[in-house]
Specification:
The protein has 477 residues and is an alpha/beta fold. The protein has three domains: 3-87, Winged helix-like DNA-binding domain superfamily/Winged helix DNA-binding domain (Arc Repressor Mutant, subunit A, Orthogonal Bundle); 125-365, 3-Layer(aba) Sandwich (Aspartate Aminotransferase, domain 2); 368-476, Aspartate Aminotransferase, domain 1 (Alpha-Beta Complex), CATH 3.90.1150. Helix content is 39%, strand content 13%. It contains 15 helices and 15 strands. The chain has helices at residues 16-29, 42-49, 53-65, 89-94, 127-140, 155-168, 183-195, 210-218, 235-242, 264-277, 335-342, 351-362, 365-392, 417-426, 457-472; strands at residues 38-39, 69-71, 77-79, 178-181, 201-206, 222-229, 232-233, 247-250, 280-284, 309-314, 326-329, 396-398, 406-411, 432-433, 446-450. The strands form three sheets. Strands 4-11-10-9-8-5-6-7 form an eight-stranded mixed sheet, with helices on both faces. A four-stranded antiparallel sheet has the order 12-13-15-14, with helices on one face. A three-stranded antiparallel sheet has the order 1-3-2. α7 (183-195) packs across α11 (335-342). The longest helix is centred in the last third of the chain and has 28 residues, at 365-392. Bound molecules: pyridoxal-5'-phosphate. Residues 118, 183-185, 209, 251, 256, 284, 286, 314, 316, 321, 326 line the site of pyridoxal-5'-phosphate. Residues 14-82 form the HTH gntR-type domain. In the C-terminal section; belongs to the class-I pyridoxal-phosphate-dependent aminotransferase family. Keywords: Aminotransferase, DNA-binding, Pyridoxal phosphate, Transcription, Transcription regulation, Transferase. This is PLP-dependent aminotransferase family protein.
Length: 477
Amino acid sequence: MDLLHLKPSREQGAPIYLQLYRRYQEAIASGRLQPGDRVPSVRSLASELGLARGTVEVAYQMLVGEGYFVARGAAGTVVSPRLGNLVDPGRAKASAPSHAPSPRPRALDHRMLPFQLGVPALDAFPRKTWTRLAGRTVRTLETVAMTHPDPAGYDPLRRAIATYLGISRGIACAPEQVFVTAGYRGALELVRRTLLQAGDLGWYEDPGYIFARQFLERAGMRLAPVPVDEEGLDVRIGLQRAADARFAVVTPTHQSPTGVALSLPRRLELLEWAHRRRAWIIEDDYDSEFRYHGRPLPALKSLDRNGRVLYTGTFSKVLFPGLRLAYLVVPASQADKFRDMVDHLPDPGSVLPQAMVADFMEQGHFARHLRKMRPLYAARRGYLADALAELAGGRLHVQQQAGGIHILARLLPRQSDRKLAMAAQDEGLAVQALNDWRMRKSPQGGLLMGFANFATAGEAAAAVGRLAAILENPGRT
Ligand SMILES: Cc1ncc(COP(=O)(O)O)c(C=O)c1O
Protein backbone atom coordinates (compact mmCIF):
# COMPACT_ATOMS: atom_id res chain seq x y z
CA MET A 1 0.00 0.00 0.00
CA ASP A 2 1.19 3.52 -0.74
CA LEU A 3 2.53 4.98 2.50
CA LEU A 4 1.06 8.34 1.59
CA HIS A 5 -2.35 6.85 2.04
CA LEU A 6 -1.77 5.31 5.46
CA LYS A 7 -3.26 7.26 8.27
CA PRO A 8 -0.50 8.90 10.36
CA SER A 9 -0.72 7.72 13.93
CA ARG A 10 -0.49 9.62 17.18
CA GLU A 11 1.77 6.95 18.66
CA GLN A 12 4.67 7.73 16.33
CA GLY A 13 5.92 10.57 18.51
CA ALA A 14 5.82 13.40 15.98
CA PRO A 15 2.74 15.59 15.44
CA ILE A 16 0.54 14.35 12.65
CA TYR A 17 1.11 17.32 10.33
CA LEU A 18 4.87 16.68 10.63
CA GLN A 19 4.49 12.99 9.82
CA LEU A 20 2.53 13.93 6.74
CA TYR A 21 5.07 16.57 5.72
CA ARG A 22 7.94 14.06 6.11
CA ARG A 23 6.14 11.42 4.09
CA TYR A 24 5.76 13.77 1.19
CA GLN A 25 9.36 14.89 1.46
CA GLU A 26 10.46 11.30 1.46
CA ALA A 27 8.19 10.36 -1.47
CA ILE A 28 9.62 13.24 -3.52
CA ALA A 29 13.21 12.47 -2.60
CA SER A 30 12.84 8.82 -3.56
CA GLY A 31 11.17 9.65 -6.87
CA ARG A 32 7.83 8.04 -5.99
CA LEU A 33 6.31 11.46 -6.47
CA GLN A 34 7.80 13.33 -9.36
CA PRO A 35 8.02 16.98 -10.36
CA GLY A 36 4.70 17.95 -11.92
CA ASP A 37 2.72 15.17 -10.20
CA ARG A 38 -0.57 16.39 -8.84
CA VAL A 39 -1.27 15.75 -5.16
CA PRO A 40 -4.73 15.31 -3.65
CA SER A 41 -6.59 18.38 -2.49
CA VAL A 42 -6.48 19.18 1.23
CA ARG A 43 -10.12 18.25 1.50
CA SER A 44 -9.87 14.88 -0.20
CA LEU A 45 -6.70 13.84 1.63
CA ALA A 46 -8.19 14.87 4.98
CA SER A 47 -11.28 12.83 4.28
CA GLU A 48 -9.29 9.85 2.96
CA LEU A 49 -7.06 9.75 6.04
CA GLY A 50 -9.77 10.74 8.51
CA LEU A 51 -7.85 13.85 9.63
CA ALA A 52 -8.92 17.40 10.32
CA ARG A 53 -8.53 19.63 7.27
CA GLY A 54 -6.44 22.07 9.30
CA THR A 55 -3.85 19.34 9.98
CA VAL A 56 -3.39 18.57 6.29
CA GLU A 57 -3.40 22.28 5.49
CA VAL A 58 -0.47 22.94 7.85
CA ALA A 59 1.57 20.16 6.23
CA TYR A 60 0.76 21.46 2.73
CA GLN A 61 1.63 25.03 3.72
CA MET A 62 5.04 23.87 4.93
CA LEU A 63 5.60 21.94 1.70
CA VAL A 64 4.58 24.96 -0.40
CA GLY A 65 6.66 27.29 1.77
CA GLU A 66 9.75 25.13 1.28
CA GLY A 67 9.24 24.82 -2.45
CA TYR A 68 8.24 21.15 -2.58
CA PHE A 69 4.72 21.91 -3.73
CA VAL A 70 3.28 24.60 -5.96
CA ALA A 71 -0.34 25.64 -5.50
CA ARG A 72 -2.03 26.28 -8.83
CA GLY A 73 -5.37 27.61 -7.68
CA ALA A 74 -8.27 25.82 -9.29
CA ALA A 75 -5.85 23.50 -11.11
CA GLY A 76 -4.80 21.98 -7.78
CA THR A 77 -1.45 21.49 -6.08
CA VAL A 78 1.49 19.79 -7.78
CA VAL A 79 5.00 18.71 -6.85
CA SER A 80 7.15 21.65 -7.93
CA PRO A 81 8.34 21.14 -11.52
CA ARG A 82 11.45 23.11 -10.55
CA LEU A 83 12.69 20.31 -8.31
CA GLY A 84 13.98 18.72 -11.53
CA ASN A 85 16.98 16.60 -10.75
CA LEU A 86 17.16 17.26 -7.05
CA VAL A 87 14.98 14.23 -6.61
CA ASP A 88 16.09 10.62 -6.66
CA PRO A 89 19.72 10.84 -7.72
CA GLY A 90 19.40 7.54 -9.63
CA ARG A 91 16.61 8.88 -11.75
CA ALA A 92 18.16 12.28 -12.19
CA LYS A 93 21.31 10.73 -13.60
CA ALA A 94 19.26 8.68 -16.01
CA SER A 95 17.59 11.65 -17.71
CA ALA A 96 19.37 14.60 -19.26
CA PRO A 97 18.77 17.63 -17.00
CA SER A 98 17.22 19.79 -19.70
CA HIS A 99 14.30 17.41 -20.20
CA ALA A 100 10.95 18.00 -18.69
CA PRO A 101 10.11 15.58 -15.91
CA SER A 102 7.76 12.84 -16.98
CA PRO A 103 4.47 13.92 -15.50
CA ARG A 104 1.61 11.51 -15.10
CA PRO A 105 -1.26 12.73 -17.27
CA ARG A 106 -4.17 13.10 -14.98
CA ALA A 107 -6.89 11.88 -17.25
CA LEU A 108 -5.77 8.28 -17.44
CA ASP A 109 -7.46 7.12 -14.32
CA HIS A 110 -9.79 4.20 -14.03
CA ARG A 111 -13.00 5.92 -14.98
CA MET A 112 -14.42 5.95 -18.47
CA LEU A 113 -14.64 9.61 -19.43
CA PRO A 114 -15.34 11.19 -22.82
CA PHE A 115 -12.18 11.21 -25.01
CA GLN A 116 -10.54 8.47 -22.88
CA LEU A 117 -7.32 7.38 -24.59
CA GLY A 118 -6.16 3.84 -25.09
CA VAL A 119 -9.49 2.10 -24.50
CA PRO A 120 -11.14 0.26 -27.41
CA ALA A 121 -14.89 0.31 -28.12
CA LEU A 122 -16.03 -1.76 -25.17
CA ASP A 123 -19.69 -1.66 -26.25
CA ALA A 124 -18.71 -3.64 -29.37
CA PHE A 125 -16.73 -6.31 -27.53
CA PRO A 126 -18.08 -9.74 -28.55
CA ARG A 127 -19.26 -10.80 -25.13
CA LYS A 128 -21.42 -13.69 -26.36
CA THR A 129 -18.54 -15.34 -28.18
CA TRP A 130 -16.28 -14.69 -25.24
CA THR A 131 -18.77 -16.27 -22.83
CA ARG A 132 -19.02 -19.35 -25.03
CA LEU A 133 -15.24 -19.62 -25.20
CA ALA A 134 -14.93 -19.20 -21.43
CA GLY A 135 -17.28 -22.15 -20.83
CA ARG A 136 -15.55 -24.25 -23.45
CA THR A 137 -12.09 -23.44 -22.11
CA VAL A 138 -13.00 -24.41 -18.58
CA ARG A 139 -14.65 -27.65 -19.80
CA THR A 140 -11.89 -28.73 -22.14
CA LEU A 141 -8.61 -27.42 -20.73
CA GLU A 142 -6.16 -30.35 -20.70
CA THR A 143 -5.15 -31.54 -17.25
CA VAL A 144 -1.54 -30.75 -18.00
CA ALA A 145 -2.45 -27.11 -18.70
CA MET A 146 -3.98 -26.96 -15.23
CA THR A 147 -0.62 -27.62 -13.60
CA HIS A 148 2.02 -24.89 -13.41
CA PRO A 149 1.87 -22.96 -16.68
CA ASP A 150 4.85 -22.32 -18.92
CA PRO A 151 6.21 -18.86 -17.96
CA ALA A 152 6.90 -18.25 -21.66
CA GLY A 153 3.14 -18.42 -22.27
CA TYR A 154 0.49 -21.02 -23.11
CA ASP A 155 1.85 -22.96 -26.05
CA PRO A 156 -1.27 -22.87 -28.31
CA LEU A 157 -1.37 -19.08 -27.84
CA ARG A 158 2.29 -18.73 -28.79
CA ARG A 159 1.55 -20.74 -31.91
CA ALA A 160 -1.56 -18.72 -32.76
CA ILE A 161 0.41 -15.45 -32.37
CA ALA A 162 3.25 -16.71 -34.59
CA THR A 163 0.74 -17.68 -37.30
CA TYR A 164 -1.14 -14.38 -37.06
CA LEU A 165 2.08 -12.32 -37.26
CA GLY A 166 3.26 -14.29 -40.28
CA ILE A 167 0.04 -13.59 -42.15
CA SER A 168 -0.82 -10.08 -41.00
CA ARG A 169 2.49 -8.41 -40.22
CA GLY A 170 4.95 -10.18 -42.51
CA ILE A 171 6.91 -11.51 -39.54
CA ALA A 172 8.36 -14.99 -39.99
CA CYS A 173 8.89 -16.42 -36.51
CA ALA A 174 8.71 -19.76 -34.73
CA PRO A 175 6.47 -20.13 -31.63
CA GLU A 176 9.69 -20.53 -29.58
CA GLN A 177 10.51 -16.88 -30.37
CA VAL A 178 7.16 -15.69 -28.99
CA PHE A 179 6.83 -14.84 -25.28
CA VAL A 180 3.46 -13.99 -23.78
CA THR A 181 3.76 -11.18 -21.23
CA ALA A 182 1.65 -9.31 -18.71
CA GLY A 183 1.02 -6.22 -20.85
CA TYR A 184 3.57 -4.18 -22.78
CA ARG A 185 5.41 -3.41 -19.59
CA GLY A 186 5.89 -7.14 -19.08
CA ALA A 187 7.54 -7.25 -22.51
CA LEU A 188 9.75 -4.24 -21.73
CA GLU A 189 10.76 -5.78 -18.43
CA LEU A 190 11.71 -9.03 -20.12
CA VAL A 191 13.86 -7.20 -22.67
CA ARG A 192 15.46 -5.07 -19.98
CA ARG A 193 16.31 -8.04 -17.80
CA THR A 194 17.64 -10.13 -20.66
CA LEU A 195 19.55 -7.66 -22.83
CA LEU A 196 20.03 -4.35 -21.04
CA GLN A 197 21.74 -3.00 -17.96
CA ALA A 198 20.90 -0.16 -15.60
CA GLY A 199 22.26 3.11 -17.00
CA ASP A 200 22.05 1.97 -20.63
CA LEU A 201 21.22 4.78 -23.04
CA GLY A 202 18.27 4.46 -25.41
CA TRP A 203 16.63 6.56 -28.11
CA TYR A 204 13.15 7.61 -27.24
CA GLU A 205 10.63 9.12 -29.63
CA ASP A 206 9.84 12.71 -28.67
CA PRO A 207 6.89 12.94 -28.26
CA GLY A 208 6.46 9.32 -27.28
CA TYR A 209 4.36 6.92 -25.26
CA ILE A 210 4.56 8.40 -21.78
CA PHE A 211 3.93 5.21 -19.82
CA ALA A 212 6.79 3.30 -21.40
CA ARG A 213 9.04 6.27 -20.81
CA GLN A 214 8.16 6.40 -17.13
CA PHE A 215 8.66 2.67 -16.83
CA LEU A 216 12.09 2.74 -18.46
CA GLU A 217 13.25 5.79 -16.50
CA ARG A 218 12.26 4.17 -13.26
CA ALA A 219 14.08 1.04 -14.30
CA GLY A 220 17.26 3.15 -14.47
CA MET A 221 17.52 3.54 -18.25
CA ARG A 222 18.79 6.82 -19.67
CA LEU A 223 16.63 8.12 -22.50
CA ALA A 224 17.81 10.40 -25.30
CA PRO A 225 14.88 12.24 -26.88
CA VAL A 226 14.86 11.90 -30.66
CA PRO A 227 12.35 14.17 -32.43
CA VAL A 228 9.54 12.88 -34.59
CA ASP A 229 8.47 14.63 -37.80
CA GLU A 230 6.08 13.67 -40.60
CA GLU A 231 8.33 10.71 -41.51
CA GLY A 232 8.49 9.45 -37.94
CA LEU A 233 11.61 9.22 -35.77
CA ASP A 234 14.40 11.42 -37.13
CA VAL A 235 17.16 8.81 -37.28
CA ARG A 236 19.83 11.31 -38.33
CA ILE A 237 19.26 13.38 -35.21
CA GLY A 238 19.42 10.18 -33.17
CA LEU A 239 22.80 9.45 -34.77
CA GLN A 240 24.06 12.97 -34.04
CA ARG A 241 22.91 12.97 -30.44
CA ALA A 242 23.47 9.44 -29.27
CA ALA A 243 25.03 7.15 -31.87
CA ASP A 244 26.37 4.96 -29.08
CA ALA A 245 22.94 4.18 -27.59
CA ARG A 246 22.26 0.55 -26.69
CA PHE A 247 18.63 0.54 -27.71
CA ALA A 248 15.79 2.46 -29.38
CA VAL A 249 12.08 2.26 -28.55
CA VAL A 250 9.92 2.99 -31.58
CA THR A 251 6.32 2.86 -32.79
CA PRO A 252 6.97 2.63 -36.55
CA THR A 253 3.50 1.70 -37.83
CA HIS A 254 1.54 4.40 -36.10
CA GLN A 255 3.75 6.64 -34.02
CA SER A 256 2.44 7.16 -30.52
CA PRO A 257 1.00 9.74 -30.15
CA THR A 258 1.38 11.64 -33.47
CA GLY A 259 0.07 8.82 -35.68
CA VAL A 260 2.68 9.16 -38.47
CA ALA A 261 4.33 6.11 -40.04
CA LEU A 262 8.10 5.68 -40.08
CA SER A 263 9.20 6.08 -43.72
CA LEU A 264 11.01 3.27 -45.49
CA PRO A 265 14.34 5.15 -45.82
CA ARG A 266 14.30 5.83 -42.08
CA ARG A 267 13.40 2.22 -41.31
CA LEU A 268 16.45 1.12 -43.27
CA GLU A 269 18.70 3.72 -41.59
CA LEU A 270 17.48 2.62 -38.17
CA LEU A 271 18.11 -1.06 -38.92
CA GLU A 272 21.53 -0.22 -40.33
CA TRP A 273 22.46 1.72 -37.17
CA ALA A 274 21.33 -1.15 -34.94
CA HIS A 275 23.30 -3.66 -37.01
CA ARG A 276 26.46 -1.56 -37.03
CA ARG A 277 26.33 -0.66 -33.36
CA ARG A 278 24.90 -3.96 -32.14
CA ALA A 279 22.04 -1.99 -30.61
CA TRP A 280 18.52 -3.31 -29.99
CA ILE A 281 15.35 -1.91 -31.50
CA ILE A 282 12.17 -2.37 -29.49
CA GLU A 283 9.29 -2.15 -31.94
CA ASP A 284 6.01 -1.34 -30.21
CA ASP A 285 3.30 -2.36 -32.70
CA TYR A 286 0.46 -1.57 -30.33
CA ASP A 287 -2.44 -0.80 -32.69
CA SER A 288 -1.42 -1.71 -36.21
CA GLU A 289 -4.66 -3.67 -36.63
CA PHE A 290 -6.62 -0.45 -37.08
CA ARG A 291 -5.98 1.39 -40.27
CA TYR A 292 -8.68 3.20 -42.20
CA HIS A 293 -7.05 4.17 -45.45
CA GLY A 294 -3.99 3.15 -47.37
CA ARG A 295 -2.33 -0.23 -47.15
CA PRO A 296 -1.27 -1.49 -43.72
CA LEU A 297 2.50 -1.23 -43.51
CA PRO A 298 4.43 -4.38 -42.73
CA ALA A 299 6.15 -4.36 -39.37
CA LEU A 300 9.72 -3.08 -39.07
CA LYS A 301 10.52 -6.56 -37.78
CA SER A 302 9.70 -7.97 -41.22
CA LEU A 303 12.78 -6.12 -42.59
CA ASP A 304 15.08 -7.25 -39.77
CA ARG A 305 17.75 -9.29 -41.58
CA ASN A 306 20.30 -9.10 -38.77
CA GLY A 307 18.21 -10.04 -35.75
CA ARG A 308 18.24 -6.65 -33.98
CA VAL A 309 14.47 -6.06 -33.57
CA LEU A 310 12.44 -7.09 -30.55
CA TYR A 311 8.84 -6.92 -31.63
CA THR A 312 5.96 -6.31 -29.19
CA GLY A 313 2.21 -6.42 -29.70
CA THR A 314 -0.71 -6.29 -27.32
CA PHE A 315 -4.30 -7.55 -27.02
CA SER A 316 -5.28 -4.37 -25.19
CA LYS A 317 -6.56 -2.59 -28.30
CA VAL A 318 -8.08 -5.51 -30.18
CA LEU A 319 -9.74 -7.07 -27.12
CA PHE A 320 -9.54 -5.06 -23.90
CA PRO A 321 -6.78 -3.68 -21.66
CA GLY A 322 -8.07 -5.46 -18.54
CA LEU A 323 -6.97 -8.73 -20.10
CA ARG A 324 -3.31 -7.73 -19.53
CA LEU A 325 -1.98 -9.85 -22.35
CA ALA A 326 0.78 -8.76 -24.69
CA TYR A 327 3.62 -10.55 -26.47
CA LEU A 328 7.23 -10.21 -27.43
CA VAL A 329 8.92 -11.77 -30.45
CA VAL A 330 12.67 -12.08 -30.09
CA PRO A 331 15.30 -12.77 -32.75
CA ALA A 332 15.94 -16.51 -33.20
CA SER A 333 19.53 -16.01 -32.00
CA GLN A 334 18.24 -14.71 -28.64
CA ALA A 335 15.42 -17.19 -28.03
CA ASP A 336 17.43 -19.43 -25.66
CA LYS A 337 18.58 -16.47 -23.58
CA PHE A 338 14.99 -15.25 -23.20
CA ARG A 339 13.77 -18.77 -22.50
CA ASP A 340 16.27 -19.00 -19.69
CA MET A 341 15.27 -15.60 -18.29
CA VAL A 342 11.49 -16.21 -18.24
CA ASP A 343 12.02 -19.23 -16.03
CA HIS A 344 13.18 -16.83 -13.33
CA LEU A 345 10.67 -14.01 -13.72
CA PRO A 346 6.98 -13.57 -12.88
CA ASP A 347 4.89 -15.36 -15.52
CA PRO A 348 2.14 -13.77 -17.62
CA GLY A 349 -0.58 -14.98 -15.25
CA SER A 350 -3.44 -17.43 -15.44
CA VAL A 351 -3.61 -19.89 -18.30
CA LEU A 352 -7.40 -19.42 -18.70
CA PRO A 353 -7.44 -16.06 -20.54
CA GLN A 354 -4.47 -17.21 -22.61
CA ALA A 355 -6.37 -20.34 -23.66
CA MET A 356 -9.45 -18.24 -24.48
CA VAL A 357 -7.46 -15.86 -26.65
CA ALA A 358 -5.80 -18.82 -28.40
CA ASP A 359 -9.25 -20.26 -29.22
CA PHE A 360 -10.49 -16.81 -30.23
CA MET A 361 -7.67 -16.59 -32.76
CA GLU A 362 -7.73 -20.19 -33.97
CA GLN A 363 -11.48 -20.25 -34.53
CA GLY A 364 -11.41 -17.13 -36.72
CA HIS A 365 -13.16 -14.82 -34.22
CA PHE A 366 -10.13 -12.56 -34.06
CA ALA A 367 -10.14 -11.85 -37.80
CA ARG A 368 -13.94 -11.43 -37.78
CA HIS A 369 -13.76 -9.05 -34.85
CA LEU A 370 -11.15 -6.92 -36.64
CA ARG A 371 -13.28 -6.84 -39.78
CA LYS A 372 -16.17 -5.55 -37.70
CA MET A 373 -14.12 -3.01 -35.75
CA ARG A 374 -12.35 -1.29 -38.65
CA PRO A 375 -15.46 0.32 -40.19
CA LEU A 376 -16.87 0.99 -36.73
CA TYR A 377 -13.75 2.92 -35.74
CA ALA A 378 -13.66 4.72 -39.07
CA ALA A 379 -17.23 5.90 -38.38
CA ARG A 380 -16.46 6.93 -34.79
CA ARG A 381 -13.34 8.75 -35.88
CA GLY A 382 -15.56 10.61 -38.37
CA TYR A 383 -18.02 11.56 -35.59
CA LEU A 384 -15.24 13.17 -33.60
CA ALA A 385 -13.43 14.80 -36.54
CA ASP A 386 -16.71 16.27 -37.87
CA ALA A 387 -17.73 17.60 -34.47
CA LEU A 388 -14.30 19.17 -33.97
CA ALA A 389 -14.40 20.80 -37.40
CA GLU A 390 -17.89 22.14 -36.81
CA LEU A 391 -17.65 23.27 -33.20
CA ALA A 392 -13.97 24.04 -32.67
CA GLY A 393 -12.55 24.35 -36.19
CA GLY A 394 -11.18 27.85 -35.66
CA ARG A 395 -9.15 26.82 -32.63
CA LEU A 396 -7.65 23.51 -33.55
CA HIS A 397 -6.69 21.49 -36.57
CA VAL A 398 -7.13 17.72 -36.74
CA GLN A 399 -4.05 15.92 -38.05
CA GLN A 400 -4.64 13.35 -40.79
CA GLN A 401 -3.91 9.94 -39.34
CA ALA A 402 -4.30 6.69 -41.18
CA GLY A 403 -5.16 4.57 -38.18
CA GLY A 404 -5.33 4.14 -34.44
CA ILE A 405 -8.07 4.93 -31.95
CA HIS A 406 -7.23 8.50 -31.05
CA ILE A 407 -7.00 11.87 -32.76
CA LEU A 408 -4.31 14.50 -32.41
CA ALA A 409 -5.57 18.04 -32.86
CA ARG A 410 -2.96 20.78 -33.17
CA LEU A 411 -3.66 24.03 -31.38
CA LEU A 412 -2.96 27.55 -32.56
CA PRO A 413 0.63 28.62 -31.82
CA ARG A 414 1.27 29.78 -28.27
CA GLN A 415 -1.88 28.23 -26.88
CA SER A 416 -0.91 26.18 -23.86
CA ASP A 417 -2.07 22.61 -24.41
CA ARG A 418 -1.28 21.74 -20.79
CA LYS A 419 -3.50 24.49 -19.44
CA LEU A 420 -6.31 23.56 -21.79
CA ALA A 421 -6.01 19.86 -21.00
CA MET A 422 -6.05 20.59 -17.27
CA ALA A 423 -9.12 22.80 -17.63
CA ALA A 424 -10.83 20.08 -19.68
CA GLN A 425 -9.89 17.40 -17.17
CA ASP A 426 -11.36 19.53 -14.40
CA GLU A 427 -14.61 19.34 -16.37
CA GLY A 428 -14.42 15.54 -16.62
CA LEU A 429 -13.05 15.35 -20.17
CA ALA A 430 -10.12 12.98 -20.60
CA VAL A 431 -8.18 14.93 -23.25
CA GLN A 432 -4.42 14.99 -22.83
CA ALA A 433 -1.79 17.58 -23.69
CA LEU A 434 0.76 16.66 -26.35
CA ASN A 435 3.41 18.50 -24.32
CA ASP A 436 2.90 16.06 -21.45
CA TRP A 437 4.10 13.34 -23.83
CA ARG A 438 7.19 15.29 -24.85
CA MET A 439 10.62 15.18 -23.27
CA ARG A 440 11.45 18.63 -24.68
CA LYS A 441 8.66 21.15 -24.59
CA SER A 442 7.45 22.72 -27.83
CA PRO A 443 5.49 25.94 -28.47
CA GLN A 444 3.30 23.90 -30.83
CA GLY A 445 0.75 22.27 -28.56
CA GLY A 446 -1.84 19.65 -29.30
CA LEU A 447 -4.66 17.74 -27.70
CA LEU A 448 -4.95 13.95 -27.75
CA MET A 449 -8.46 12.56 -27.79
CA GLY A 450 -9.73 9.01 -27.87
CA PHE A 451 -12.77 8.41 -30.08
CA ALA A 452 -13.40 4.68 -29.74
CA ASN A 453 -16.21 5.02 -27.24
CA PHE A 454 -18.29 7.66 -29.02
CA ALA A 455 -21.13 5.40 -30.13
CA THR A 456 -23.04 8.13 -31.98
CA ALA A 457 -22.41 11.45 -33.68
CA GLY A 458 -24.53 13.05 -30.97
CA GLU A 459 -22.31 11.75 -28.17
CA ALA A 460 -19.21 13.09 -29.91
CA ALA A 461 -20.86 16.46 -30.56
CA ALA A 462 -21.95 16.78 -26.92
CA ALA A 463 -18.42 16.14 -25.64
CA VAL A 464 -16.86 18.44 -28.24
CA GLY A 465 -19.38 21.14 -27.33
CA ARG A 466 -18.11 21.01 -23.75
CA LEU A 467 -14.51 21.09 -24.96
CA ALA A 468 -15.22 24.01 -27.32
CA ALA A 469 -16.58 26.05 -24.42
CA ILE A 470 -13.29 25.48 -22.56
CA LEU A 471 -11.26 26.39 -25.64
CA GLU A 472 -13.23 29.63 -25.89
CA ASN A 473 -12.64 30.48 -22.31
CA PRO A 474 -9.99 28.33 -20.62
CA GLY A 475 -9.80 30.54 -17.52
CA ARG A 476 -13.44 29.94 -16.69
CA THR A 477 -12.83 26.78 -14.62
C1 LIG B 1 1.94 3.23 -27.48
C2 LIG B 1 1.38 2.06 -26.72
N1 LIG B 1 2.16 0.98 -26.56
C3 LIG B 1 1.71 -0.10 -25.89
C4 LIG B 1 0.45 -0.14 -25.36
C5 LIG B 1 -0.04 -1.41 -24.70
O1 LIG B 1 0.06 -1.44 -23.40
P1 LIG B 1 -0.52 -2.70 -22.58
O2 LIG B 1 -0.27 -3.94 -23.36
O3 LIG B 1 0.34 -2.66 -21.38
O4 LIG B 1 -1.95 -2.42 -22.34
C6 LIG B 1 -0.38 0.97 -25.47
C7 LIG B 1 -1.71 0.96 -24.85
O5 LIG B 1 -2.38 1.93 -24.64
C8 LIG B 1 0.09 2.09 -26.19
O6 LIG B 1 -0.68 3.18 -26.36
